[in-house]
Amino acid sequence: MKKIVILLITLLTFQGFSVQSQSTPDVLKSLKTQHPRLLLLKGEEQEILSQIKKHPEWNAIHQQILAECDKLIDTPPVERIKIGKRLLDKSRECLRRVFQLSYAYRTTKDEKYLRRAEKEMLAVSAFEDWNPTHFLDVAEMTMAVAIGYDWLYDGLSTQAKTTISEAILKKGIEPSFEKKHSSFLNAEHNWNQVCNAGISFGALAIAESQPEIAANVISRAVATIPKAMIPSYEPDGAYPEGFSYWGYGTSFNVLFISAIEKALGTDFGLSQSPGFLKTAGFLQNLLGPTGLAHNWGDSGLKEGLSPAMFWYAEKTGDPSLLWTQKTLLSDKTGNNVRNRIIPALLVWGIKTDLGAIKAPVKKQWVGQGPSPVALMRTSWTDPNAIFVGLKTGSPSVNHAHMDIGSFVIDAQGERWAMDFGMQDYNSLETKGVDLWNRTQNSQRWEVFRLNNFAHNTLSFDGQLMNAKGYAKIDSWSDSKSEMVAVTDLSDLYKGQITAAKRGIAIREQKWVVVRDEVKTGDKPTKMRWNLLTGATVKVVDGKTVELSQNGKKMLIVFETKANIEIKTWPTTPTHDYDAPNPNTQFVGFEATIPANSAESFNAIFSPSAQLPKVKPISSWK
After folding, report:
1. pTM for this one?
2. Can you say whether the dihedral through the CA atoms of 269, 152, 335, 77 is positive or negative?
3. 58: CB partners within 8 A, 6+ apart
């Protein structure tokens, strides 16, 4: 950390540098002089070839990449066609193609792969620009072309090298020094990680011809990427933007660290940032036994293989981090080649002893930070195990929803309590939705999927959560008989009620208990307890709901002294810009709580009518 702090203090001035600024010579003093220098040095592909002969799992990935590259031979290069304000899908497709084609050439020496990659790079180098107004597009395109330029350097024609290196400089690096495009340098989220990584790949690729510029880029990146790394992973590794954005921001952060470590012989202490080496546990524990993620915030349910997880397993010496990845390695659908950085899996994971991958020992994972979570399960090996994920934090975090206190539940091989996850951004932006404004009265919170009414949490008098409110995991326990997590949600309902606490427990490895304790102020309050599910809902009586799906059943029994009215609500979108939500519904209850009073509410998820006794949260351990 000391190295990071020193660099952060002394090099922050690089934020406003022009490309003519004075360089930092020491940064490049250990630069590998020959190509390739990014991720995989010359000759290191031989280790990959050796390993794929020994291990069928590695060979399967290798063969999938070669088969995909064969399909690409006659596929036209990407064109500069934007979707809304983004060129990002074209940048990502270029990265996917060039990375895989370059890998195919390096491992087979078949000229057809080199020439096809060269064709792709020349096509995008001829674009008028790489869309710097949405700088992620530039970053990923720069990384794509940089990898191809570096990995294929000896085989590219002289003219191609000139054209491609000029594009890296003029369309990638130089715009990153313009103030109107460089806001990523101050970002505390994935933009910082992705943009610094992409531009740094470009700088390292052309460092011998542009040493001062390359030194500026690397110095700037090392100085500014901690602005994202430190708040994103400190203290426990819980990534604030959730499952899918972990796959984005963290993967590119690892790409950056891996690239500078290989090309320069050092990562400047960045991998030792607080929580960074712990964050693989976060991703691993987000996946339930159904194979679905706890997809809070702007997240999807599945992401496939994560090359970065293999980097973490190697870096930490903990192969159990790959327990769920090992299953994904066996995917026969060919979907792995849709991952645009899939060759990095073979670069980072090739030394992994797949036979040494055992199930994790701990069944609970808790992380604090901007978006604290508690993730717990009854087993890593039983597909019918119970899994519960509790999400806290704040709606003010990048890509967050008003989902504080929300949870998901897997049991019997099914997901009973679910989350919608994200809606496609372009579908909202094209309708003029003010999507990225996270203030209290922003139109963002009118989007159906994003506010508290669409999540498994509480609402009072039909009001939104406090957008600046915050909650953490206040206490937890991983005892076999009662695995628990408790959060104080009071700050999210400031001005609406006096206090709200939620505790979630897995009792005796067969029940899930959600307990809420609420105190009101000087006026009565109407509370809504909400659950989103894809199951069929049957209201059995005044305190019981039966959920059923795929021949399996789950009861929800509500226990309280208050008068409640069990209800279901449709998930029909409110506005024309909202995405449809087929095969889902809300179920829960409403209760009017008198002024200046305290009430408790238990929701017990049980496979049978037998129920546990539930004590006040204060006695939970």
Report:
1. 0.95
2. positive
3. 48, 51, 52, 346, 349, 350
How many helices (DSSP H) and strands (DSSP E) are in the chain?
17, 17
Give the structural domain span for 537: 364-619
CA distance 76 to 66: 18
The secondary structure of residue 87, as a DSSP letter, is: -
250 and 291 together in one domain: yes
Q: Are 582 and 570 in contact (CB under 8 A)?
A: no
HSE of 350 in the Cβ direction (CA atoms, 13 Å)?
21
Nearest Cα to 417, choosing from 525, 220, 549, 565? 549
Residue 495 located in a structural domain: yes
Residues 493-550: pLDDT tens digits?
A: 999 999 999 999 999 999 999 999 999 999 999 999 999 999 999 999 999 999 999 9
List the beta bridge partners of residue 372: none
Q: Residues near 290 by Cβ (< 8 Å), separated by ≥ 6?
A: 383, 387, 410, 413, 414, 415
**Tens-digit pLDDT profile for residues 252-304:** 999 999 999 999 999 999 999 999 999 999 999 999 999 999 999 999 999 89
Q: How far apart are CA 220 and CA 294, in angstroms?
A: 35
339 & 403 share domain: no
Could you tell me which residues come within 8 angstroms of residue 355 by beta carbon, excluding any fewer than 6 positions away? none
Angle at 491 between CA 488 and CA 492, to 5 degrees: 95
* End-to-end Cα separation, the chain, in angstroms: 35
